[in-house]
Specification:
It is a single chain. The chain contains 16 helices and 16 strands. It is an alpha/beta fold. Among the domains are: about 220 residues, Spore Coat Polysaccharide Biosynthesis Protein SpsA, Chain A (Alpha-Beta Complex); about 60 residues, no CATH class; about 60 residues, no CATH class. A hairpin with a 5-residue loop joins strand 8 and strand 9. GO terms for molecular function: glycosyltransferase activity. It comes from Candidatus Regiella insecticola LSR1.
Amino acid sequence: MFDLRIEAIKETVDKKIHFICLIKITEIQQQYIDLWIKHNPDYEINIWVDNTATLAWELALRLQNEASKAALTALTIGTGELYSLSKENRIIEQNQAYETIKTAMETDFFSFDQAISEFLQNKNLATKDELKQIKLKNEKSIDDALSELQSRNPTAKIYRLNLRNLSQLLPDISPETVFDLVPDTDSIQIPPDKKESEWYIKELALRGNLAAASDICRLLILQEYGGICFHTDLLPAINTTLFSEFIDSTAEDPEGAESQRRIVNIILDQQKQTGRVPVASEVEGEQFVEPLFVNKIKDVLARAHEQNIPLFKSLNELKVDPYFQCQYDTGYNRAVVAKKDSLCIKKMLDNLNKGHLLIKHSLYSIDRLTLIEWQPEFAQAALKQRLMELSLRFDASVLVQYRDDNIAHKGQHARSSDELTGIRAYDYACADLYNQVEIERTKTLMASEQPFINVFFLTEEIYQSRLSGVMRDYSLLINRPCYDQQYIIQLYANPAALAAANFLYQQNPLLSIWYRYDPLKQQLAKVAGTEYLGDHRKKELFWWIIEWRTTAANPASMGK
């Protein structure tokens, strides 16, 4: 009875589905969108793209690579500061890129891609033709995907984000590629003077954080239009009635998410074989599925095809709490439902604005753009006090890491991004709204619910990327080795070989032994490292450092 009362007071959300596609649209993402459209014919489909910022990912990668190279060549033996130096180099490079791009957009009225192109060319990090080909390729992936989707779903609407006036979400109606270094005529020479555009440009140029940029767009879209906004790595929930006998529920997994994941993978495999879904990249940690289980699921799929039974659920009617007018899933913010002008989304945007004002405040210098010595301890203490005065829930120790965050690994949020636009930001906004009505959080008011609506989160694309294909953490120290012991054999004493050996050792010093060849004694001398004392069946990785251009890896003694 109580649950029925809660359901009765909820408000219906307009039937609109929004997808945000930055940089490019992969075949897999295109097919995921198509499945949503197919199973929700009563919904208005809105696809948001930004064809003026297709080089943002390229900028982030090239700046990171340049910073890594500079750190590597500057190191001498014994420093042990590879990661710190690389990070500082990256911040310096990104600062220069951001200031240059921002000025070019405001003064010369260049588009974002035009400004990136000029900057990378002037830094000798890329040629004009090279960048033009990358831009055309990314734009083609977007245009081809949109054309294909609209051919099958003529009602789908395409919005091209106007980066200069992001807050009003005015579509850029010109599909023409403007690449030469001339003013962007579509901008009508209007500098990006809105705070929302500043956040967006900052995430793309200063941090290379496409996930946070996408999150900002989602908030603005939901506030302006309402509906549900999906990331392109999500699928509709499977028809649990059809597969009920194969869904195993346990105390640890009450919804049977793991068995549903196996079922979804089999469905997608079947559709790949028929050409309805392209082959995805190999998923890390993919588990073996019993052939008997696979065959049983295939039998169900055949029966469903004969009887025209849908394999996935539709969204049906979406409702939200009348106070928050927003709903998101506990632990996720990849699918958010909200009414237009939602109180919760409005509160999030207000908190985000205050957060960015603090980030760029010269007293804390969290964005690291001011020319003062960075003192994180002072900044954190001062910021913590100011957050208390402003009654903001941000964690000062996390917010000061705003520039420490590297390119998000496989689309996962960096910590400071989670504070500003991720799941913690949603929780903060809801908690603020609870306090305003002076009640304790109960089931009568619930913006975060588990389980969520008919969405399946554990897709193959989650393991790849929600934005731009396969993404990897470009931090130099990735402490996820597949070996038990690493041997580094430095054969020559030249500076390049020394730097390369030091780089390899610093990746995992606890599992590494570094030897240098002594030509006089004609033997190896240990430079650093400790012998592995674990299982004798260890996996060993050997590196022979000859010279910079011919450094080679040779797993010559795996399992020795």
